[in-house]
Amino acid sequence: xxxxxxxxxxxxxxxxxxxxxxxxxxxxxxxxxxxxxxxxxxxxxxxxxxxxxxxxxxxxxxxxxxxxxxxxxxxxxxxxxxxxxxxxxxxxxxxxxxxxxxxxxxxxxxxxxxxxxxxxxxxxxxxxxxxxxxxxxxxxxxxxxxxxxxx
Length: 151
Description:
By secondary structure, this protein is of the alpha+beta class. The chain contains 6 helices and 2 strands.
């Protein structure tokens, strides 16, 4: 799918600020939200970022893989004022969060980076493979300032 110009602009602005490839942000946007069609109500949160205490939130049902089983649970998702704010927060999380240090060490290898998100960013055991398929299938690396995909 071809992302909208506002999605590309938000992803590229976040890449310029945080160094996370726009292709990754766009692929996660597509996978996590069905290209913007499935977000928690009034959240502008296409990434499934959970709310921390004191943050604006939207509670919604979500699918998680827990102990190897698909479960539907209620979760508090962070609410953002705009889609651009969500892309910025998403890139900041990946660029600075301790759980993503192993993935960051693999950049500029986009496939290595997204595969290292499996079991860390998302509980889906196929998460990295799904992101790689989206990045390749939609040629999302064309939106990156400087990144590459291997494997």
